[in-house]
Design a protein that fits this description.
Structural class: mainly alpha
Number of strands: 0
Radius of gyration: 23 Å
Oligomer: single chain
Order of helices and strands: HHHHHHH
Largest sheet: none
Helix content: over 70%
Strand content: under 5%
Length: about 200
């Protein structure tokens, strides 16, 4: 005599329904993760920002254009090393493929604007337009981040858009403001967004 006791068949149906819902949620989350390259290292991005702040100070102290350019090229090489190294490390830990699938799409979308920036840097230097390089670098780097970010976390293309806006602003500002824009973009934006990605995406 237990009038309020649920029938066993109803309990089984409810348990089956809840189990199916949990499976659907798991499948959906797995598919979403598979469609995005989540191995971009937030801490690596932040470290790149701190090195750019240091490079901004050093570059602003240089008396020659060549020394200024070398300072930023050295920082770019360091940034690539840190970014690629820590991203590969994060991908390895998370078992995310780098050279296939979504990792390859991310890299192939990111690289063309970067290669264009490297080529145009040589061209601008040869014709004496080094004062226009900060705007060019920020704009093309932001473009690469936006296109690559289409296959990554939502915050990545937002960061790229911020770089692009800074690049446009730097292109129409006095040349003496170049290092300030570089420090704001490659320094400040990297630190802010890197910290955000590290918090939201486990490093």
């Amino acid at each position: 005599m237990y009038p309020n006791r649920p029938r066993p068949d109803r309990v089984k149906i409810k348990a089956l329904h809840e189990h199916a819902a949990e499976n659907l949620i798991f499948i959906r989350e797995t598919m979403e993760r598979a469609g995005y390259f989540t191995a971009v290292s937030g801490w690596g991005t932040a470290i790149i920002g701190f090195t750019a702040i240091l490079a901004t100070f050093i570059a602003s102290q240089q008396s020659s254009t060549d020394a200024w350019l070398v300072t930023w090229l050295v920082d770019a090489a360091l940034a690539i090393t840190v970014g690629v190294g820590l991203t590969c490390r994060k991908a390895y830990k998370a078992k995310i493929p780098i050279l296939s699938g979504i990792g390859r799409k991310f890299a192939f979308s990111l690289c063309p604007p970067m290669l264009a920036g490297a080529f145009l840097t040589a061209v601008f230097y040869r014709v004496g337009l080094t004062s226009a390089l900060p705007g060019l670098w920020l704009l093309l780097y932001g473009t690469g981040i936006v296109t690559g970010g289409a296959f990554s976390a939502r915050v990545v293309p937002v960061m790229g858009l911020c770089f692009m806006l800074l690049g446009v602003a730097a292109s129409f500002s006095p040349p003496s403001w170049g290092d300030g824009f570089m420090g704001t973009g490659f320094g400040g934006l990297h630190i802010i967004f890197g910290w955000w990605m590290a918090r939201k995406d486990n490093g």
